[in-house]
Amino acid sequence: MSTSQSLVTTLKGTNVELDFHKIKKNLKDFLSAQDQFVDYNFEASGISILLDVLAYNTQMNAMTAHLALNELFLDSAQARPNVVSLAKQLGYLTRSVGSATATINLTVVPPFSYTSTSLTIPADIMFSGGGLSWYTASTYTSTKNGNGNFYFSNVILREGRRKVVRYYYDVRRSYPKFEIPDRDVDTSTIKVRVKETEKSTIYTTYRPFTYFSAIDDTTPVYFMEENALGLYEVYFTGGDIGISPSEGNIIEIEYIYSNGAAANGISVFKTDYIFTKAGESQIVRATASATGGRDKESADSIRFNAPYYFEAQNRCVSFNDYAAVIRREIPQVESINVWGGESNVPAEFGRVYIAIKPAGGLVIDNALKQYIINSVLRPKAVATISPRIIDAEYTYIGLDIESRYNPANTTNSSQAIADIIKNATIAFSNKYLNVFEGPFRYSKFLAAIDNSEVSIENTIARVYLIKKIFAYANQENEFFLTVPTEFYDFDADDAIIRSSIFRLNNISHYLIDQKDETDPNRRQLVLMFISTEGDQVVQDVDVGYIDLIGKIVYIYGFRPDTDTTISIYVNPKSYDIVPIRNQIISVDPNEVTVRVLSDYIETNIYPGTVRANATPRNITKFERG
User: Fold this and answer.
1) Which of 226, 184, 242 lies closest to 234, judged by CA?
2) Where does residue 276 fall: left (phi above 0), alpha (psi -120 to 50 degrees), or beta otherwise?
């Protein structure tokens, strides 16, 4: 066998070995097997240094080859530019920062000198809120009401700052690309306009490329991608697809750059803009906190979404297709679930149901629903299938947690441990819940609590569910609530649900259930009040019912004294809570109680465990409300 063949045989695998010491050992084994190096001391300083150099060089080459090979595949690439480039080969455009939106009601009280009976708010009027800039999304018009004021309802504000960049089009460059200089641009707000010269006032508006069947030789279309620097670029095909600008044309790119998720939750807004005349006053009230702000798509998200989008091929056939297309087109989406009408309750064939949770919010507004259906889905969906977007339905989890700990294993007080447990509970909810198909696993939750502090010996938690309803004072209220698990099977005389206290006729009332003598699969809801003597008295026995088979709570026919939020507490049959379809479960931090006790067994305070107590698992009667 030749020396070179012997080297290959002896060092087989060394070129992909990443451990320095193993590489050096392989080199030693090779040299010691050669006749030329008989009786050499390979630990001597001179030859040991040479072996170190050879081993380091081999290790560096192996590491470089290893990392370079990893960056060739979407699954293993780590550098974001490489992940973006690989996703681009699948036709995937990375999701940009998403601007948050807020809805406000605006009342403008004009001075007496303002005589016009109508008022128009232009688009792009600047508001401020939370230290950020907001702009009106479109134009709104109102007429004077009986009080002489102008009332604007459902005014949409979008967070961010508007910017325009201009470029000169040079045909000598092949497929020239025009960079948008802001990394936090919201690509859904980009508008591309082209005019012939700097002095021209007539623009041609270009639209983004979606799919080939939507364009022809006369369609002004632009393309967009993310470059290696993390910036988005606009480019044209020089007339190969649609029409492109000509030599000397001015390209104008207008967009909004945003703070993304940082704007979510803001609910106080104001403006210095004068809508009528000096002396006017304004009342700005948010109907809900700002939602929909999203940060730029992460490399992990690109890895997950790009293959699904490629599989969808820009059309909506399977459930994954609908989800992939919506995720790409709508940056506000945090979580999405899609199911067929045949799986709905009640079943509705020929329809696809879609539930969307926006970033930083609970539900999406009707305008965005219509945009998704008409502009995003219908052009890509099967003609005979009708999509329908429904709101997410939230079920909150309340927890009574009792933990026992060994004081010898910690310097923390029982109160400090209780705080740690509550924080671990919230972290568990944020990690595993708050999304569609995010189940609450009881054993996994207990493990997270036990592992949150080293001295905790064991934990027991009582779990109950909460449905929140908003009841109006000026109308008969009706609620149809679904529960993501079966009800606990108490004795017939024990209550399954109970509501929080609300005022009716200036008396404290609550809802509770009782046995239905005519139907074992139903329970009757009754309205109770608390008398001045503190007695609990039945006022109305016909305010709803519980469908034990369908896991439904139906409430109707009552008016509280004031508009109020009422909590409906439910005892579940299982502590493993699995949401389906449009259901989302989340731990309510305000409904978490923690009790931390010293463990008598571990501390040996009472030998023989004569004082050791066990915590009961199930609630035997209602303690909520």
Assistant:
1) 226
2) alpha
Tokens of 503: 């005022």
Helix (H) or strand (E) holding 59: helix 45-70
- Cβ partners under 8 Å of residue 583, min gap 6: 392, 393, 394, 395, 436, 482, 484
Per-residue b or e along 479-517, where b marks 16 or more CB atoms closer than 10 Å to that residue's CB: eebbbbbebbebeeebbbbbbbebebeeeebbbbbbebe
How does pLDDT run across 471-509, given as a tens digit for each residue? Answer: 888 888 888 888 888 888 766 667 888 999 998 888 888
Q: How confident is the model at residue 187 (pLDDT cuts 50, 70, 90)?
A: very high
Count Cβ atoms below 10 Å from residue 81 Cβ, excluding itself: 15
Report how far residue 266's alpha carbon sits from residue 102's, in angstroms, rounded to the nearest whole number: 8
CA 157 → CA 99, 124, 362, 388, distances in Å?
A: 10, 9, 18, 26
Summarize pLDDT for 236-273 with one digit per residue, the tens: 887 778 888 888 899 999 999 999 989 998 999 999 99
Entry pTM: 0.69
Asked if 587 and 494 count as a contact pair (C-beta separation under 8 A), the reply is no
**Number of residues in the chain:** 625
Q: How far is CA 464 from CA 325, 373, 623, in A?
A: 37, 37, 11
The set of residues, in sequence order, having a beta carbon less than 8 Å from that of 452 and lying 6+ positions away, is: 420, 421, 423, 424
Residues 144 and 150 sit within 8 Å (Cβ to Cβ): yes
Q: Dihedral angle at the C-alpha atoms of 72, 77, 82, 85, nearest 10 degrees?
A: 70
Ranges assigned E (strand) in 375-483: 386-390, 393-405, 456-471, 478-482
What's the Cα-to-Cα distance from 578 to each of 340, 399, 464, 574, rounded to whole Å? 19, 16, 14, 10
Residue with tokens 């933990």: 403
When pLDDT is cut at 50, 70 and 90, the band that residue 163 belongs to is: very high
Q: What is the DSSP string of 3-54?
A: HHHHHHHHTTTGGG---HHHHHHHHHHHHHTSGGGTT--TTSHHHHHHHHHH
Q: Rounded to 10 degrees, what is the CA torsion of 233, 100, 319, 352?
A: -130
Burial of 187 (0-12, 13-18, 19+ CB in 10 A): buried
User: What pLDDT is attached to residue 227?
Assistant: 92
Angle, vertex CA 120, rays to CA 119 and CA 125, nearest 5: 130
pLDDT tens for each residue of 75-116: 888 888 999 999 998 888 898 998 999 999 999 999 988 889
| Distance, C-alpha 478 to centroid of its chain | 30
Two structure tokens written together for 83: 């992940």
Cβ-count burial 585-600 (b if 16+ within 10 Å, e if not): bbbbeebbebebeebb
> In this structure, which amino acid lies at residue 538?
V
As given in the structure block, the two tokens for residue 603 are 């501390």
**Residue 40 contacts residue 47 (beta carbons within 8 Å):** yes
Residue 614: DSSP 8-state: P
- Cis before residue 346, ω within 30 degrees of 0? yes
Give me 32's structure tokens.
């010691």
